[in-house]
Design a protein that fits this description.
- It is a single chain.
- Helices cover about 80% and strands about 0% of the residues.
- It is mostly helical.
- The chain has one domain.
- Helix 2 packs parallel to helix 9.
- The chain is built from 16 helices and no strands.
- The termini are far apart.
- It is globular and about 60 Å long.
């Protein structure tokens, strides 16, 4: 394994090729992760429509776990990149050591919660015994094995902070590809493997995460890594946690809003049918193919923006932001065209139930209108995080999911029926984009004027 090329390149290499060099590994890794999410649901969809609904009900709980990991990982990336931008490699190592401790603590707490309360957690979203049983069987295994989620995701954040996006890509690819391979063996009982159904999907997920986590542990603690970690010399510094979560906690809350939104959407759609819940779950799996590349782009933007913010290089910050917005819009435009043109083919991959196909085609065509606006919104949040301002990202997410989307879904469903519910997504995206993009431009303009010593 080649050593990291070093964080210094973030301040000297040409922005366009460097941004794509940083982003493409994350985009590839997240695209493979999105592929896993879709394939996992396709396998479950072939078990039964009810199994797919149960997986959708468990998804908000998984999103809580992901929120804890993403928030901490983004906080680590932002703080480490800004610290390296100031030339302080020793402090960057201390930050990484604190992230290791967080991964172990979160894994233990979540495992205990899942072992004791899995059934009660699923029972919050439904009173159908079959769905509660399948959902609890799945989420219990996921939560008990959650340390295998936190280790790779948080350690990826450390490496991205030093500008290394290649190893995080490999970590995600290893986990996702192995998961895709193991899924059918554990779900359907191929060969000598037991037929576990929904539980099999969870077992395959945990096993694949253990392998990917082992891989990144070996990299992070090797002498080839730029940031040096020595847990024997670990000394608790609460100020590191404060600085890390000043960015990470708002991101965490923003991700949790996604869980609240999905749970609320399940409740609203459940008043129509379990099929509508299944369609909602299918959409969330499919949308990851559109959103994950943008998040991958954001993983490249953050160390580049953060480093040059730390070193006061305003021209590189401007160029990074411009390229990022254009690229993000291009991704979502492509997603819009695919969803509009191939909605039937996308739905029938999961299940060919006539009612599910009819509702699904209508949902994909209407929801995907919002794709035209979501790319710049996500990129605005990433830039806020890169410059150490996590609160605006939280406000943007709260506006989209809680203030706009769920109330609009409820009102459209109540007065116009299920067909109208799907229009809530593009309506919420347009309004959120207008607010987020304007705010980002205002803040960035003032910040750049301050760096350049000009009046705002």
């Amino acid at each position: 394994m080649k050593p990291s090329p070093g964080s210094a390149r973030l301040g000297i290499e040409p922005v366009l090729p460097l941004l794509f060099k940083l982003s493409i590994p994350s985009i590839i890794g997240m695209a493979v992760q999105a592929l896993y999410n879709v394939v996992d649901s396709i396998y479950i969809g072939h078990v039964s429509k009810e199994a797919l609904s149960a997986l959708t009900l468990a998804f908000p709980i998984q999103m809580v776990l992901i929120a804890l990991a993403v928030g901490t990982g983004v906080g680590a990336t932002s703080l480490i990149s800004r610290t390296l931008g100031k030339g302080d490699r020793e402090t960057a190592g201390r930050i990484a050591e604190h992230v290791v401790i967080i991964a172990l603590i979160l894994g233990g707490l979540v495992a205990l919660t899942g072992a004791l309360f899995a059934r009660q957690l699923i029972g919050v979203f439904t009173d159908v015994p079959e769905l509660i049983q399948m959902g609890a069987d799945y989420i219990r295994i996921i939560m008990v094995g959650s340390v295998a989620l936190f280790v790779p995701m948080l350690f990826n954040g450390i490496l991205r902070g030093e500008g290394n996006t290649f190893i995080p890509m490999l970590t995600m690819i290893i986990g996702a590809v192995l998961n895709i391979i193991l899924d059918p063996f554990f779900i359907f009982g191929i060969g000598f493997f037991p037929e576990l159904g929904v539980k099999g999907a969870a077992v395959a997920t945990v096993l694949s995460r253990i392998v990917s986590g082992t891989f990144i542990i070996r990299i992070l603690f090797s002498d080839k890594n730029e940031i040096k970690i020595n847990m024997r010399k670990f000394r608790l510094q609460l100020d590191i946690y404060r600085r890390l979560y000043s960015v990470g906690f708002p991101v965490m809350l923003m991700q949790l809003l996604g869980s609240v939104m999905l749970a609320g959407g399940n409740l609203i759609l459940g008043s129509f049918s379990t099929t509508a819940i299944a369609v909602f779950g299918i959409f969330f799996r499919l949308q990851s193919f559109v959103f994950m590349p943008i998040f991958g782009l954001g993983q490249g933007v953050m160390p580049l923006m953060g480093y040059n913010f730390g070193s006061g290089n305003s021209s590189r910050m401007k160029e990074t932001a411009r390229i990022a917005y254009i690229t993000a819009f291009s991704f979502t435009l492509l997603g819009f065209l695919i969803f509009q043109s191939f909605s039937r083919q996308l739905i029938t991959m999961f299940n060919r139930d006539p009612e599910l196909v009819r509702i699904g085609i209508e949902a994909l065509k209407r929801i995907s209108i919002g794709f035209l606006f979501v790319g710049p919104t996500i990129m605005s949040a990433s830039i806020f995080q890169a410059i150490g301002r996590g609160t605006p990202s939280l406000i943007i997410g709260f506006l989209r999911a809680i203030v706009l989307l769920l109330p609009i879904m409820y009102l459209l469903g109540r007065f116009f029926g299920l067909s109208a519910v799907w229009y809530a997504f593009p309506i919420a995206e347009v309004l959120t984009f207008s607010f987020a993009f304007t705010w980002m431009l205002t803040v960035l303009r003032k910040l750049l004027h301050s760096i350049e010593g000009e009046p705002a």
